[in-house]
Amino acid sequence: MGAEQADTPISGDVPRDDREHTGTPISGSARRGGSDIPGGRRKQRVSMADVAKLAGVSSQTVSRVSNGHPGVIDSTREQVLAAMRELGYRPNSAARALRYGQFNTIGVILFSLASTGNSRTVEAIATHAAAEGYAITLIPIDVPTQDNVLGAFTRMGELAVDAVIAIIEIYLLDTVTVTLPPGVHVVVVDSDAGDRYSVVDTDQADGARRAVRHLLDLGHRTVWHVTGPRTSYAALSRARAWRATLEEAGRPVPPPLPGDWSAGSGYAAGLALAGEPGCTAVFAANDQMALGLLRAFHERGRTVPGEISVVGFDDIPDSAYFVPPLTTVHQDFAEVGRRCVRQVLAQIRDGQSSRPGTDLVPTSLAVRQSTAPPPAGATS
Amino acid sequence: MGAEQADTPISGDVPRDDREHTGTPISGSARRGGSDIPGGRRKQRVSMADVAKLAGVSSQTVSRVSNGHPGVIDSTREQVLAAMRELGYRPNSAARALRYGQFNTIGVILFSLASTGNSRTVEAIATHAAAEGYAITLIPIDVPTQDNVLGAFTRMGELAVDAVIAIIEIYLLDTVTVTLPPGVHVVVVDSDAGDRYSVVDTDQADGARRAVRHLLDLGHRTVWHVTGPRTSYAALSRARAWRATLEEAGRPVPPPLPGDWSAGSGYAAGLALAGEPGCTAVFAANDQMALGLLRAFHERGRTVPGEISVVGFDDIPDSAYFVPPLTTVHQDFAEVGRRCVRQVLAQIRDGQSSRPGTDLVPTSLAVRQSTAPPPAGATS
DNA sequence: TCGGATGATGTTTACGTAAACATTATCCTT
DNA sequence: AAGGATAATGTTTACGTAAACATCATCCGA
Asked: How far is Cα B208 from Cα B202, in angstroms, rounded to an integer?
């Protein structure tokens, strides 16, 4: 619709700064618009009415141009566009939202961006949402109590949000149902609330099974496990699959060692395991804890993978550069984010509320150098 | 409008799993409100008018109650509150924003949440903003081109946002000035645009100086450096301070090795450095690259810190569990986030637009086990 | 040449909130 | 007891947008 119209008869004295140059014709004129009111505080926003006045049309016509509706003659459209540029007009999304009852915004509730998984998932959510014209509103929860979760959902309900994606431990989700206003859709990550909500998640069990099988296939008699925190559904799920896989194979199930995702907890577990003579293989519920294990074994002179094999979970970028490079379960966080957005948008478009169901993203195993067959002398 | 719909008169067999549990007195009544319109699509939102009607007052009184204004007699207030609960009323933030011309939202523009620093900073921003009643709207930029940055700022301008925090490489900031509507405030991280914007950042130079001094004080003749990407202001700044510190001390300045923040690039640099006989100390521009260095040195049989000392930058949680635990410059990302929010709020409240200036957060050195005096035979 | 179809544009209205102003009831002072 | 202050509540209006409807001009076919 653009530059070829440049010769409509507006006037001679307005500096037409959009002659043919590539980018952003906005810059020069926006500045000009700003200087309209010389002394005092300029009017904060430029509204359609302002544009309409300058262009000599009704504000409805401005609206039509703004939204690309048909039925505006080219010369008029050009005049309006020129006026928009001149004044630096931007549509006011609050008014739009009020009008439409829709905000084009997705709320995300989560505990911490500190964990790799969360931040990558959020990033993917933001990226895909942006591609669909949605923005992301973030509410982090510092202390994970039911009250705080409830509060976050309440705030989301008050905010201009069409849907909520909650990346949240399941046990905190119990009382939440009713706090959201009707019409707001929910998708949940890291939870098995598939009976109540749309759930998207990495297929934790699948990943854990891959890890354990890999170690068993290498000839290890059994596999020890360092768990994530008890409050995490992902951790629980991985531990369950670890146990199930061992049991299916008829292997003894050693007592799981409690961890909390941190390298420190992995280190502590590693110190304990270094003293277990029968231990030749460990599956850590995430890469950080695997890192702690590696360091503990290194300190205690237990070589990896010579004496002990270690498998992690997540495949954080660094894990390929651990000493030794870590064999780990690869999670596709980007895909999780993508599917969250897809689900949420489907709900918004259907007008349907969160329909229960679980959407699992498969994992894969990144085999590197922290795993090997057990040492010859090991109890097999 | 989700699960609470489940017990509108569908049938009796739905298990009521929320009888009498602790929180949310809202639950029961919110559900009632939902069933108002039996057949068709219920009215999406409950407005003040609805509450007013039910409470038998004017909507203005509801507004007063909603905002905690004085001048409402207790009995009336109670009636209104009851009606609010009954209907599950929530203020509509879009209408509010339209009315006030303020959105209580801060926009954050950034490249990637994948880097530890960014995600921690964003988290801190979100937390502190939330404490002040502000929400965060996130726009990530997948491909860092000027056009995309411009686009992100433009979108922010259209969104309901009172201010923008940009965590962005400086060189992409050039054309941006004019794209934001007047009245939107800007704070920038990771940039030296202090002449044009409010800048908050870690004191990169201070941190780099600490790292280099530490190594020189241990007796190393000079310090090698693995840089971050050329596009990063932080990387540039660290490299500059590294060079300056060496020059001040009258030491030779070895050629810097190019990195890109990734462990892989650190690894590559490490392989190169392992062949440099004179190299006894390396300062990596971040911890990931330091990790790569450690692995390369380990592979090449160069002991750390026996033969070579390594210092990183960031102090990511894992770095204490590297082999060996990494001496590194600690960045206070949370403080950076806090100050961003403080600056932005100050601007909003002053009504002043972004006033130039730079606010630097100091660093500290976390001394661990990857640094030691140079080996006895080393050239000194 | 006229009636009606079509296309371009204008006018009215509602979205939900809250400031500004208007009204009514109540209580105190003299 | 009357007048005036004060407190409690109601009414009107504007915020910026866009759907719905209304108006006007133009063009076409019979």
From this structure: 11
